[in-house]
Amino acid sequence: MTQSKGTLYRGREGMWSWVGHRITGVGIFFFLLVHVLDTSLVRVSPEAYDAVIGAYKNPIMIMGEIGLVGAIVFHAFNGLRIILVDFWKKGTRYHKQMLWGVLALWIVTMVAFSARHLMLFLEGWN
Amino acid sequence: MTATNSEAVLPAQGIEAPRSGRVDPKYLRSKTTSGSFEMAAWVFMRVSGIALVVLIFVHLWVNLMVGDGIHQVDFGFVAGKWANPVWQFWDLTMLWLAMLHGTNGMRTIINDYAEKDSTRLWLKSILYIGSTVIIILGTMVIFTFEPCLLDSTTGEPLPRAVCPN
């Protein structure tokens, strides 16, 4: 192993995946609070709900939705990787390879999601 | 918690799992042990995490990837979904698991970065109150949802309400 800094974790894949997991987790949590509140408008009036949900249907928010789904998909795939590190006998040995797998799957998923989301948005956009 | 390093396994015999209980007393923030709660929280994060991957991926698929995508989401769309008890149960489970998973994650982060006892207490109090309010609000919205909302003065259906003909 080419190891010059004398550390297994700091500044390496293990640390950066942990940083990514934390940041995406906090971001998703705050969106979740907002999302429960905006959905709660269905108890106020149909027009209030439609007006606020309508704010999600413009080009800037579409980019934000792609960012949000990007955070969710990374957190989901990396979370499954953490479970494999914890419970799979060879998890610790292959944690790095699994991280590359997570990133590859993330790119494939996000290319597909972004293309579909943008296409559907542009089709119905006046 | 034994609070001693004497039993720590030497690296040659394999390295002890982190936070396994043998912590030098000078690094302990609290004299009390919370071992079983932390263990339950650790298990919950993994179990709820697996469930949330399924719940949220299907939620995103049904709401954004099929039909008209984001343009289909309006009051009528929500009324259509919640007319089916399966989607009510789906969204209720997603709400509870996601809020508890997220709240426990935020609790971990507060414990990691807020070093003063009083700061941790304040931040966690705000977190728990906020999370409780959101969970109760979301639960009530799902259970008291009314597709045919009426104007309180005229008794006529509100614009865009979904009423049986």
UniProtKB/TrEMBL annotation, chain B:
It comes from Nesterenkonia aethiopica. Pfam families: Sdh_cyt. It is found in: Membrane. The keyword Magnesium does not apply. This is Succinate dehydrogenase hydrophobic membrane anchor subunit. The chain crosses the membrane at residues 39-62, 82-100, 121-145. Its main location: membrane. It comes from the Bacteria. Keywords: Heme, Iron, Membrane, Metal-binding, Transmembrane, Transmembrane helix.
